[in-house]
Amino acid sequence: MNERPAITCRIDDKHVPLYNILWIAETPHFCGDEECTAEGLYEIRLALGESLYGSRRDRDGAVSALQQWRGGDETEW
Ligand SMILES: [Zn+2]
């Protein structure tokens, strides 16, 4: 692949710089709060204590964007 890896990924309706992502949830969010709007979505934790919640597709896209950004699919980290 000759394309340069993207340094942003799309979460929900936002383009998020990969270097702002601290971690990405493996399992969907569940807290049981009736007013929670993030149930069943995947948490993407950002620097500065913010979190975004995205669909499974958003989450998978973010993970693979990060893996490519860090130097290729074969890199474990
Ligand atoms: Zn919740």
Round the Cα radius of gyration to an integer and report it: 13 Å
The CATH architecture assignment turns out to be Beta Barrel
**Largest sheet features:** 3 strands, antiparallel
Q: Indicate the mean pLDDT.
A: 88
Bound molecules: zinc ion
- Principal-axis shape equals elongated
CATH class (first level) name: Mainly Beta
How are helices and strands ordered from N to C?
EEEEEH
Find the count of extended strands (DSSP E, 2+ residues): 5
Strand order of the largest sheet: 3-4-5
Could you explain how this protein is built, in words?
The structure is a single chain. The protein has 77 residues and is α+β, with helices and mostly antiparallel strands. It has one domain: OB fold (Dihydrolipoamide Acetyltransferase, E2P). It is built from 1 helix and 5 strands, in the order βββββα. It has one helix at residues 56-69, and strands at residues 8-11, 14-17, 21-24, 42-46, 51-54. The strands form 2 sheets. A 3-stranded antiparallel sheet has the order 3-4-5. A two-stranded antiparallel sheet has the order 1-2. A hairpin with a 4-residue loop joins β4 (42-46) and β5 (51-54). The model has no long low-confidence stretch (mean pLDDT 88). Zinc ion is lined by residues 29, 31, 33, 36, 38-39.
